[in-house]
């Protein structure tokens, strides 16, 4: 299992578009991918779960990947969040 | 914000007849338009379509949430339709979409994400999805949604609060309610009330609890606790030096203490509630609300609290009336009226001010006595105390019921009348407790007022000659006091104002000052007020000229103290005194005492018991008064500069 802590940098947080893109990107990995936020564990492959978690700008989150392709999954997930999903 | 606040019944169409994504969007946009959410329908629809271009807003599981955050939105809102057979919305899971919510979000605020989040949380529930799809009417749809939202967010709200309070929810109206409630009140209701409320709210935030504080200040109660909030809370902290409405806390855990405990030990108080150590409060019939706490409260504190309750109601009359009377004299002075017995009512304008002011002033004793009695015996005490206070001003005796000038017992008599009135009513309640419950309602409407006032009248007529003599002696004593002892009195009273800055010493001196006004000792009040003005000003000066003795935060607070001091709000000095009492308090006391002494020596007089710089125009020998203020403040400042340790490099 690998994990990484980071901050949400896009000003709108996990709204629908980033959540959809993120969940779609994660869906191609076989690993379990979760986001720990506010004492919750959120399934990163579910758009609904991601949006329901209400992860806002500046939130401290931790991505946890567990499985065969965990390294690659973590790298892409962290990349997406750190780049602010290509948003501002 | 709740979903159902954003979703009107008229904006829901269950089992809509739409066959494509485009038709669904048209219908939803129309619903928003009808609800009056949109400023520009076309621009909004373009926003929706542009968003769909970027990628579908269907999230799978048969749900789609088209949305746009746009200038074209006038007010935030939701519209919803269900399509039982489903339409193709290019969902990621390939399934048709059958529940569609459309969000209209204005440009400002976080609303967008929160609505989305909450909708998603609710819609993850399969049962709710089934219920929504089954709904045949807008009412059914809405009530299913509302029921689930209530269920979910009343408990989840509370849980989330405990784990993380970083969210801004603690300040919003919360469905979960507040865990702790507080009521703060002090007699003057200017500074302590708010400081205690702030301290409690801040500390609770640090400790991770939600707390709402009601302030019973001079401007009336603010941020008032609602019955629902009281019902939902773990307990209530009452940090008050005057009476607050307690009846509403029946059956809850209530911890009662003084207002300074709220400022200085907020953590302790909060823990009392959280750990359930506070006793459960019961209101018993018509008994005075504070009866429950008497056991833990010393007799001295009780008397202080009743007295302050009376004083706080009396002050507005004295302030308004006193200033008006002083203005009357000012007007006649300017008009050059002859200084005879008509002085102050010589010109028409002066006569107006003096008469109206005099009427207001005339309520001083009855209100004082009435509200002391009410503090002791609740509502039935009010009438009895009022009458007693009036008798004290008139000087009624058995020998001369119409009133004997030598038997006017004044302030002292009104004080006694207030306490006597309260206890007479309590006694009557005890005496008539044998009444069957069917006759009990006779007590407040007939027995207490009638017998209370009869007894009160008899009691006052009996004590008036003796108390009147004492009152006259005090007045004469004050007036005939030699200049040395007057200066000494000024020093002592002004110094007392600075000892605890709003506490019992301060209040004792202050009440003495207002009492002196009632018997013509205007120089006493002048010394008292200046004693209360010096500490904040001395501190403000020190923060300006001796910056290195204070932290950056203190220096900022220092500026506010100029204003506080000039407005006669001694409480401004409290934060400084609290952080370094052994150095700050003696400096302030010395400065105040010097100012009080000078004020007396200069023969300054003040007919109004409050107002600071704003009543300077009506101060007698205002030049000397200003001089006293300046010298006193400088003395305080210099002492602070000498005594205080260096905090930061200059």
Automatic annotation (TrEMBL), chain A:
Subcellular localization, as worded in the UniProt entry: Cytoplasm
Superkingdom of origin organism: Bacteria
Domain HPr: 1-88
Principal subcellular localisation of the protein: cytoplasm
Keywords assigned by UniProt, alphabetized: Cytoplasm, Phosphotransferase system
Transmembrane parts of this sequence: none
Matching InterPro entries: HPr, HPr-like, HPr-like_sf
Pfam family, one: PTS-HPr
Protein name: HPr family phosphocarrier protein
Biological source species: Anaerovorax odorimutans
UniProtKB/TrEMBL annotation, chain B:
Gene3D superfamilies: 3.40.50.2300, Mannitol-specific EII, Chain A
Record keyword DNA repair present: no
Keyword RNA-binding: no
Domain PTS EIIC type-2 span(s) in chain numbering: 303-650
Subcellular location: Cell inner membrane
Matches recorded under SUPFAM superfamilies: Phoshotransferase/anion transport protein (SSF55804), PTS system IIB component-like (SSF52794)
Protein name (record): Fructose-specific PTS transporter subunit EIIC
Organism, scientific name: Anaerovorax odorimutans
């Amino acid at each position: 299992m690998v994990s990484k802590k980071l901050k949400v940098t896009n000003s709108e947080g996990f709204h629908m578009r980033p959540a959809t893109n993120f969940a779609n990107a994660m869906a191609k990995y076989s690993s379990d991918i979760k986001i720990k936020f506010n004492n919750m564990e959120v399934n990163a492959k579910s758009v609904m779960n991601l949006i329901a978690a209400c992860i806002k700008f500046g939130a401290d989150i931790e991505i946890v990947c567990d499985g065969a392709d965990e390294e690659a999954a973590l790298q892409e997930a962290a990349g997406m969040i750190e780049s602010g999903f290509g948003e501002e | 914000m709740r979903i159902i606040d954003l979703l009107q019944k008229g904006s829901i169409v269950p089992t809509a007849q739409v066959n494509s994504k485009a038709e669904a969007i048209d219908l939803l946009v129309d619903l928003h338009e009808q609800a009056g959410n949109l400023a520009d329908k076309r621009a909004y629809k373009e926003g929706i379509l542009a968003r769909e271009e970027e990628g579908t807003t269907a999230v799978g599981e048969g749900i789609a949430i088209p949305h746009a955050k746009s200038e074209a939105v006038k007010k935030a809102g939701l519209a919803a339709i269900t399509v039982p057979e489903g339409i193709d919305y290019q969902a990621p899971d390939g399934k048709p979409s059958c529940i569609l919510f459309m969000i209209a979000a204005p440009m400002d605020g976080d609303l967008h994400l929160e609505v989305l989040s909450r909708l998603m949380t609710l819609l993850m529930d399969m049962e709710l999805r089934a219920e929504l799809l089954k709904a045949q009417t807008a009412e059914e749809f809405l009530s299913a949604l509302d029921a689930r939202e209530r269920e979910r967010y009343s408990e989840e709200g509370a849980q989330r609060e405990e784990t993380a309070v970083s969210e801004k929810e603690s300040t919003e109206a919360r469905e979960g309610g507040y865990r702790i409630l507080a009521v703060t009140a002090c007699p003057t209701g200017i500074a302590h009330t708010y400081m205690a409320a702030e301290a409690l709210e801040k500390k609770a935030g640090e400790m991770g609890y939600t707390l709402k504080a009601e302030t019973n200040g001079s401007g009336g109660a603010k941020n008032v606790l609602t019955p629902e909030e009281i019902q939902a809370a773990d307990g209530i902290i009452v940090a008050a030096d005057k009476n607050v409405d307690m009846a509403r806390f029946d059956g809850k855990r209530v911890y009662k203490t003084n207002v300074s405990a709220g400022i200085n030990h907020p953590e302790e108080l909060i823990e009392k509630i959280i750990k359930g150590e506070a006793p459960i409060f019961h209101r018993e019939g018509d008994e005075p609300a504070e009866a429950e706490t008497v056991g833990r409260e010393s007799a001295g504190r009780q008397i202080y609290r009743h007295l302050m309750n009376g004083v706080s109601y009396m002050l507005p009359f004295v302030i308004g009336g006193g200033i008006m009377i002083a203005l009357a004299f000012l007007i006649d002075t300017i008009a050059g009226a002859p200084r005879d017995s008509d002085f102050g009512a010589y010109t028409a304008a002066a006569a107006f001010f003096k008469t109206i002011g005099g009427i207001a002033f005339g309520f001083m004793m009855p209100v004082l006595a009435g509200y002391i009695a009410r503090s002791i015996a609740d509502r039935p005490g009010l009438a009895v105390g009022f009458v007693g206070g009036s008798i004290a001003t008139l000087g009624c005796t058995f020998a001369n019921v119409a009133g004997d000038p030598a038997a006017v017992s004044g302030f002292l008599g009104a004080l006694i009348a207030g306490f006597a009135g309260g206890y007479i009513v309590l006694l009557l309640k005890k005496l008539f407790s044998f009444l069957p419950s069917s006759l009990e309602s006779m007590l407040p409407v007939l027995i207490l007022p009638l017998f209370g006032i009869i007894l009160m009248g008899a009691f006052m007529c009996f004590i008036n000659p003796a108390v009147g003599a004492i009152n006259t002696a005090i007045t004469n004593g004050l007036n005939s006091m030699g200049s040395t002892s007057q200066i000494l009195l000024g020093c002592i009273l002004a110094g007392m104002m600075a000892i605890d800055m709003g506490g019992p010493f301060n209040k004792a001196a202050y009440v003495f000052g207002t009492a002196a006004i009632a018997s013509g000792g205007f120089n006493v009040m002048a010394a008292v007020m200046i004693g209360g003005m010096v500490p904040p000003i001395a501190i403000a000066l020190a923060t300006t000229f001796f910056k290195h003795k204070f932290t950056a935060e203190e220096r900022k607070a220092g500026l506010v103290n100029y204003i506080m001091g000039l407005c006669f709000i001694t409480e401004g000095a409290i934060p400084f005194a609290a952080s370094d009492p052994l150095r700050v308090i003696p400096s302030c006391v010395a400065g105040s005492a010097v100012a009080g002494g000078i004020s007396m020596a200069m023969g300054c007089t003040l007919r109004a018991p409050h107002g600071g710089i704003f009543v300077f125009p009506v101060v007698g020998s205002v030049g000397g008064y200003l001089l006293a203020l300046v010298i006193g403040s400088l003395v305080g400042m210099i002492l602070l500069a000498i005594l205080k340790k260096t905090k930061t490099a200059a």
